[in-house]
Amino acid sequence: MCNNRCVFCVSGQRTAMREAFPIEAAPVLEKLREGRSQGMRKVTLLGGEPTIQPGFFDVVRGAVALGFEEVVLFTNGVKTARLQFVDEVLATGGNFTWRLSFQGATALSHERTTKKLGSFMRLRETMVNLRERGQRITVNMCVVRSNFASVAEFPSLLLPFGVEQLHLDMVRPLDAGVRTDDEMRDMLPRYGDMVAPMTAMIEGFERARPGFDVNIGNLPYCIAPTLAPWIHHDGESTFTVAVDSKDQLSEAWDKYEVKRRDKLKLASCASCVFDGQCSGVFETYARHHGTDELVPVTVEKLVALDPKQRLFVMHVRPLVAGLAGWALPAPFTALAVHENSRDGEVVLRVTGGGGAFATVALRRGGVGAGGVAATDRFSLHLLDALDGGAAVVGLLRALMARLCEGDDAVMLHTVAEDAGFQSARGAALGRGVDWRLAQCLGRLRARAPFGALRWRDVLVAPEGRAASVALETPDGNTVTLALEVKGNGVAGSYRLARPVTGPQTELVGAVRGAMEALRAG
């Protein structure tokens, strides 16, 4: 049942046709017990509109009593506009996330989509109430022709109320109820028309609150590859129980497996860098709008579209693919790759005999990338390891060499004997190198490169209290930075392999930058 009549949703249509009825609490509670017994930790109550069900509070209290770690309440605000109702929910003692169904970022676009006057203001009042009670607020919108142009207004609408996430989803035609071809065509905007307002929306969030969690669901990546960091297909493991054709609760079904049933992909999609994470386009959309928009994004096109490597994982995927079947240096024997597009890194987990392990991340390169080594394309970071000894240093050196094979990347700083100290655990991995010396070397790596000086090597003295960093000039001269632990600090100096004659402005500036990096902190 639902009090709104959203143009894209079967629930409002069935309610208007007097085909939607109240649901008894008992079978819902039985399904919750079943899911909890299988280890499920989070439950979302949605509809239609769940808060208008007579058994709503019985179900909420039951979910809390069963120990679900998070209860997500998906609502259009019809009841939550009253603070008293919110307080009744909170009195059950659960940990709630409130998912508000905004179907437009302005009153006009929202109510043009919900077909219900006053529904926008009820949601605003809901945000006021939830903000007053310190609740976690997220927002969901199904993207249709009547609301897509408004999305640029979401930053100004949501941020004052502390909203933590916005999810925009391409409407799924199979969930829209019984619609004529004309109704479906009027409902579905062309994906290409959405790019400008969605880009403006992202820019608005990034200006006001960088890193705000925006998800654009099921938009083919090739439509707007510059928005790829915010596009997602599928999600966390989710099972759905719904009302079936006999008005009974269904068996639980895998949400994302079912959602992919009415999608298609073109043969040309195999050549797209996003092929592995894109589930395609809805068949009904293709029938109404065609597939001319679906143009594969090649590696070359990606480089031109994304010079700042915001889509870093995509850029290095070919490099990482080259690690398949690679013979790891002893004692390491196995390598697993985990992509993390959201954080912009690829994590490599390496294991071997005797409990040996190392966790390494590939991240964006360039000036100031830091890590244990970096090129202008990528940087290498040691996150964790059994220790920072010779085996791990050998692994990092071999890994860097492998990644750079046949690549035209410019080396900014290379793996050396101090690698075990430039990790998330810092000196805890170190063996035999003074922590103060390691910090100095880390500061140099974090600031490299220095002008035209090319990082050649780092040598650490056997006792671990002195080190030298060799930097090469374009004409083959060498600047050696000498570091030595003295008393409570580290003394630093530099020397040239051969004397120079005449003005050396660039060289002076580069060496000065290196010395300033050593003094920082």
What structural class should be given to the helix and strand makeup? alpha/beta
- Could you give me the name of the CATH homologous superfamily of the largest domain? Aldolase class I
CATH architectural grouping of the largest domain: Alpha-Beta Barrel
Mean pLDDT: 90
Sheet with most strands: 7 strands, parallel
Alpha carbon gap, first and last residue: 62 Å
Gyration radius (Cα, Å) is 29 Å
Strand order of the largest sheet: 1-2-3-4-5-6-7
The CATH C-level name of the largest domain is: Alpha Beta
Number of domains: 3
Low-confidence stretches: 424-428
User: Which of globular, elongated, flat, extended, rod-shaped describes the shape?
Assistant: elongated
E-strand count: 21
Could you characterize what this model shows?
The protein is an alpha/beta fold and 521 residues long. It has three domains: 252 residues, Aldolase class I (TIM Barrel); 124 residues, no CATH class; 86 residues, 2-Layer Sandwich (Double Stranded RNA Binding Domain). It is 31% helix and 22% strand. It has 16 helices and 21 strands. The strands form five sheets. It has a seven-stranded parallel β-sheet, covered by helices on one side. A six-stranded antiparallel β-sheet has the order 12-13-14-16-15-17, with helices on one face. The longest helix is centred in the middle third of the chain and has 18 residues. About 1% of the residues have low confidence.
